Amino acid sequence: MEGLQASSLDFTVLFYNSNIHPRGEYELRKRENKRLANQLGIPFVDVDYDPENWLVRVTLSGNELQDNGLLLDFKMFKSSVQPVIDYLDLR
Fold this sequence. Notes:
- The protein has five helices and two strands.
- 63% of the residues lie in helices and 7% in strands.
């Protein structure tokens, strides 16, 4: 965050990762990111923690299980990025 701040870019910290378990660990990481952002005067956005929805989005179907791990990697990446895209679309 400090490096970005030094670059004079206008940015916001958007925190989202429903892959973090348990919830207490997610909250700990979110709190620390928020604390640092607030300390540095950087806007902070928290996209809702939704591990159940994340798990549904990354679960492979029977046919997909026959594929290599690349499909799972893609589904995990997409499931992590999609909530951010949805948030930005609302802006």
